[in-house]
Amino acid sequence: MKQFRLYLNPPHKQSVQDRRWEHLFKNIDREFQEVRTLVAGLDFYQPEAKHPLPYATLDGKKKSFENLYKTIMVDSGLTDDDYIPKEE
């Protein structure tokens, strides 16, 4: 079973990047994967974050948005194209 973790900024500091990550995570099939969304200030303290927020991990390893997009959307067949968005 794969473990996906999403670490977001506090609600008052969230930006478009947080929303992109959140939307991507909503497309994960939760039947055979463990998916958690953690918000700074609610689920963990921001100084405990190991990387700049927002970020995501797959089985404990930090992954880029492009890498997870490919894993979640392209490899699983949720999208037909091979387009991988570039994070700005």
Short description:
The termini are far apart.
Task: Describe the overall structure.
With 88 residues, this protein is α+β, with helices and mostly antiparallel strands. It has a single domain (2-74), classed as Glutaredoxin, CATH 3.40.30. It has two helices and four strands; from the N terminus they run E-H-E-E-E-H. Strand 1 (2-8), helix 1 (16-25) and strand 2 form a beta-alpha-beta unit. The chain is globular. It starts with a strand and ends in a 14-residue tail after the last helix. The mean pLDDT is 89.
Summary tags:
88 residues; Glutaredoxin; alpha+beta
Strand order of the largest sheet: 2-1-3-4
Report on the biggest sheet. 4 strands, mixed
Instruction: Tally the structural domains.
Output: 1
With helices defined by DSSP (H or I, 4 residues minimum), what is the helix count? 2
Low-confidence runs (pLDDT<50, min 5 residues)?
Answer: none
Helix-strand sequence: EHEEEH
Distance from N terminus to C terminus (CA atoms, Å) equals: 31 Å
Shape, principal axes of CA atoms: globular
Task: Write the CATH architecture name.
Answer: 3-Layer(aba) Sandwich
Class, according to the CATH hierarchy?
Answer: Alpha Beta
What's the count of strands? 4
- Helix percentage: 10-25%
What do we call the CATH topology?
Glutaredoxin
Question: Layout of SSEs?
Answer:
Elements: E1 2-8, H1 16-25, E2 33-39, E3 55-58, E4 61-63, H2 65-74
Parallel strand pairs: 1-2
Antiparallel strand pairs: 1-3, 3-4
